[in-house]
Amino acid sequence: MKAVRFSKFGGPEVLEIVDLPDPHPGPRQVRIAVRAAGVNPSDWKKREGLMDPDLPQTLGYEAAGVVDELGEGVTDVAVGDRVFGLTGGGAAQAELAVLSYYAPIPPSLDFAAAAALPSGIETATRALDQLGVGSGGTLLINGASGIVGSAVVQLAVARGARVIGTASPANHDYLRSLGAEPVAYGPGLTGRVRALAPDGVDVALDAAGSRVLPELIELAGGADHVITIADWVGAREHGVRFSSGDAGRAVYVLGEIGQLIESGRFSLPVAQTFPLADVAEAHRVGQQGHPRGKLVLLIG
Known about the structure:
By secondary structure, the protein is an alpha/beta fold. It folds into two domains: 2-116 and 269-298, Medium-chain alcohol dehydrogenases, catalytic domain (Quinone Oxidoreductase, Chain A, domain 1, Alpha-Beta Complex); 121-247, Rossmann fold. 29% of the residues lie in helices and 26% in strands.
């Protein structure tokens, strides 16, 4: 099968399309003929040597496609079904991928839109669960207009929470359309949030890593009411929890998101698609700008 791989660390130019042996699913896994695979910031962090020191490496943790092989014990899908999900092996940007967690693609979505979902909705749901977000509370999100941030907004609103989100003024109407109350980020953030919530907020999530953890801690009434998914160094410095999948992943959301999507209460836009051969350009676009929506590779 064709797959994305790099054998040295560096810029997008180190990415190659290579032939690798076809993978096969283990127990309770499925293999898909990949039709689309999501591109994430972790991809260029890996490529630059900021995560895993081993070489060579493949890329991709989320994909959508058609089931073509079942692992032992799989009874909830059949060969030929359209599914989307997460792979534990980090090799989803390929013609074939093994999914450890999967669900049927919601009927209204094409493969690209389905591939945009898994990582963002899992991260968002995990953070909301760890913060205990539910009906009646107020959540502040730093970086609310990005992929994870906008997923958090919609999922928190669906839980009945009040959501205040930071974003540039150009994205304020977008946040309002998702059900959030927007505020501008930057100096004076605390005052702008208190203008909307004089007593502060119940919990806060940092999805942008823009060194605002002290302000979030103040607004939420303590470091134990704040989680970051973007500032590992700041988390250690300020005693804030850094959310990762190491303590358990909220993969149950894959099976639940379809109902929200089909009822019109959740969507994640696809900003741009690229053929697999243009993966280096996808990295350049992702690193150079802030597209509103997901970058997706199309395969097959």
